[in-house]
């Protein structure tokens, strides 16, 4: 297939039908149920083709998920072959080979004693599972008051009720209910936004101190879990200060608070490792949630790695009849697990090494965009990065700037051949892991030209002094 000339039939019809009948994710009231989002027609490698036939670099790899790239024949074959062998079995009372084989391989990659996995249908259900497991554990252990969940401002953990209650990005809760009585939020560990005059080390001390104070205030006997993305992804690729995660882990261990690492984005190669917690951050969590890259988006699958120590403590409890009343029809789905096994082969067969080899170049080239006056900071790690725009570089203030500046940059990028995931004043880059140095060069050149265009526009419209 020559994807540059891929057929575009029906793109207009797709959008029209969507506008008439689809309720899209994250809509605003003014256009809910009546919104036409641009069609994507096909994909190949790091590229997708949109409804107008334009070939675009898939900057966000879908939603941080198409890690091995689009149109992998070996994954398509597995989807077909597994569907023909066994398309589904009930995990309530049977088991299938791919889920067991995958569990063994995931356990071999997971840190510490995280030797078991509970499969879900995606990231939200993985986080929800981890939280319900913590609640169940503490109920069985006879301490039903130890349930409070601690998350952070800027974090994102999902769209089910309890997982969404943990979210801390702007606008996440403006119009939505949440379980406020079950959640406490700490400050965002964003070094770029630390108080003026504070060193990064001092900033880190303050963050750890804040957690210590919260534990003291609420009482360790009331706090069940701390949940953190090792690098906050959709909050803007926030890389925490050195040592922060390990120190938060220590506090958790001291007070018997479970540390849940939400690796929905950071696992499966994004940082060059299958799981990043230990390998990149020196961290051994009690649970790790994952999704997205586990199947590179070819099938909806997620899961929670769970410490064998916790499972053993349940088996040894004096409530052997206590039921963990939690399970999904599609837990341990044979097709999802078969795809994940093949996806893991691809990662282990050179792709993780490729990420390790190319990440430095990726970060260095993107960092060069900091020479543009609209760019306040380019930050990131591995193959994830964020370009944050600011109105002026002294105050780093994004608020006086047109807050939709990310969307402007995205529009110009799309004209030039790059799909961006704009987040207010930020552009997030997390391309398929197969990206080459030449393709990174193309990506950065398009970003550079598009930011320049956006700067000209903002000055012309009187929104920015330049
Ligand atoms: N956790 C993190 C860190 C995420 O980035 C996401 C999705 O973006 C989720 C959880 C929720 O995953 P899903 O959308 O698959 O339910």
From TrEMBL:
<protein>
    <submittedName>
        <fullName>Aminotransferase</fullName>
    </submittedName>
</protein>
<keyword id="KW-0663">Pyridoxal phosphate</keyword>
<keyword id="KW-0808">Transferase</keyword>
<dbReference type="GO" id="GO:0030170">
    <property type="term" value="F:pyridoxal phosphate binding"/>
</dbReference>
<dbReference type="InterPro" id="IPR049704">
    <property type="entry name" value="Aminotrans_3_PPA_site"/>
</dbReference>
<dbReference type="Pfam" id="PF00202">
    <property type="entry name" value="Aminotran_3"/>
</dbReference>
<comment type="similarity">
    <text>Belongs to the class-III pyridoxal-phosphate-dependent aminotransferase family.</text>
</comment>
<dbReference type="InterPro" id="IPR005814">
    <property type="entry name" value="Aminotrans_3"/>
</dbReference>
<dbReference type="GO" id="GO:0008483">
    <property type="term" value="F:transaminase activity"/>
</dbReference>
<dbReference type="InterPro" id="IPR015424">
    <property type="entry name" value="PyrdxlP-dep_Trfase"/>
</dbReference>
<keyword id="KW-0032">Aminotransferase</keyword>
<dbReference type="InterPro" id="IPR015421">
    <property type="entry name" value="PyrdxlP-dep_Trfase_major"/>
</dbReference>
<dbReference type="InterPro" id="IPR015422">
    <property type="entry name" value="PyrdxlP-dep_Trfase_small"/>
</dbReference>
């Amino acid at each position: 297939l020559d994807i540059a000339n891929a057929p575009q039939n029906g793109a207009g019809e797709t959008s029209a039908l969507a506008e008439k009948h689809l309720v899209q994710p994250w809509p605003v009231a003014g256009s809910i149920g009546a919104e036409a989002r641009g069609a994507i027609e096909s994909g190949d490698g790091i590229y997708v083709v949109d409804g107008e036939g334009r070939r675009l670099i898939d900057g966000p790899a879908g939603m941080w998920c198409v890690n091995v790239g689009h149109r992998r024949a070996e994954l398509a074959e597995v989807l077909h072959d597994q569907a023909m062998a066994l398309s589904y079995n009930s995990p309530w009372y049977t088991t299938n080979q791919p889920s067991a084989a995958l569990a063994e391989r995931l356990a071999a990659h997971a840190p510490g004693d995280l030797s078991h996995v509970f499969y879900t249908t995606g990231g939200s259900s993985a986080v929800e599972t981890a939280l319900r497991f913590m609640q169940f554990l503490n109920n069985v252990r006879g301490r039903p008051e130890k349930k409070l969940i601690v998350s952070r401002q800027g974090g994102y953990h999902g769209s089910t009720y309890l997982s969404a209650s943990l979210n801390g990005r702007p606008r996440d809760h403006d119009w939505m209910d949440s379980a406020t009585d079950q959640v406490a939020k700490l400050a965002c560990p964003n070094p770029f936004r630390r108080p003026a005059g504070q060193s990064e080390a001092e900033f880190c001390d303050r963050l750890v101190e804040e957690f210590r104070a919260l534990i003291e205030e609420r009482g360790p006997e009331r706090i069940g879990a701390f949940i953190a993305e090792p690098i906050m992804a959709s909050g803007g690729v926030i890389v925490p200060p050195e040592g922060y995660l390990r120190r938060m882990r220590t506090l958790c261990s001291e007070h018997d608070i479970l540390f849940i690492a939400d690796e929905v984005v950071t696992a499966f190669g994004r940082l060059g490792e299958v799981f990043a917690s230990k390998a990149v951050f020196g961290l051994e969590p009690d649970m790790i949630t994952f999704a997205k890259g586990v199947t590179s988006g070819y099938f909806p699958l997620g899961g929670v790695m769970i410490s064998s120590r916790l499972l053993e403590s349940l088996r040894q409890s004096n409530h052997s009849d206590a039921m963990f009343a939690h399970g999904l029809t599609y837990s341990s789905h044979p097709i999802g697990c078969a795809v994940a096994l093949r996806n893991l082969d691809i990662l282990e067969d050179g792709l993780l090494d490729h990420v390790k080899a190319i990440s430095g170049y990726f970060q260095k080239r993107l960092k060069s965009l900091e020479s543009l006056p609209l760019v306040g900071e380019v930050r990131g790690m591995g193959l994830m990065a964020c370009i944050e725009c600011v109105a002026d570089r002294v105050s780093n203030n994004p608020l006086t700037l047109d807050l939709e500046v990310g969307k402007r940059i995205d529009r110009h990028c799309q004209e030039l051949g790059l799909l961006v995931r704009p987040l207010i004043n930020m552009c997030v880059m997390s391309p398929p892991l197969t990206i080459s140095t030449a393709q990174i060069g193309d990506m950065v050149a398009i970003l550079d030209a598009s930011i320049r265009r956006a700067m000209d526009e903002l000055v012309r419209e009187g929104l920015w002094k330049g």
